[in-house]
Task: structure prediction
Amino acid sequence: MHATLTEHSTHLILPKSGELRFNYKPQIKRISITEFEDICELNSDMRIEMDKDGDVIIMPPTYSETSEKNLEIVYQLKSWAKKDRRGKAYESSGGFRLANGAVRSPDASWILKERLDELSEQDRQGFKKICPDFVIELRSDTDSLPKIKAKMNEYIENGSKLGWLIDPIKKRVHIYRANKSVEILENPKTLSGEDVLHGFELDLGEIL
Result:
């Protein structure tokens, strides 16, 4: 579904499911990161992303059960990160500017502190200009699996070393690794952070 947002628009009505895409100020070829940040500030109660082509994407709220599962994922990742202290964990409202121009908000992510320290002051402002080392996307009932797979590939292409697409609907986990084929696990009990998140193990008991 597509809609147009003009300078004089005051609100948007979102569909009950799926996602809404719209072009802001269609007379220009693509919006700038500053314009995108303005859109986000004007619609702070929405979860908004921008793809590499400059299309703005608004996602509806997740169902309560999906929110509970995602909170469990973030809780486990944050608890490990606080003990490990090598990097920082983020939840689903954290947006990042990728090298291809997209602004994405993984359901959970982690970035090595050394990489964060190397960012310039400009790249730290607003949405940090960095692709997380590790990302998780949790599929909800309204999510299109091909679209989530495309996002996972985008993360890897832009620098992520490890990514998990967790699909409670089919009880599967798709594991994405840099320079490797996607691995699919059927109803696993745990997931290992491998050599990217040393010592991290996600318990899937309350998630799948």
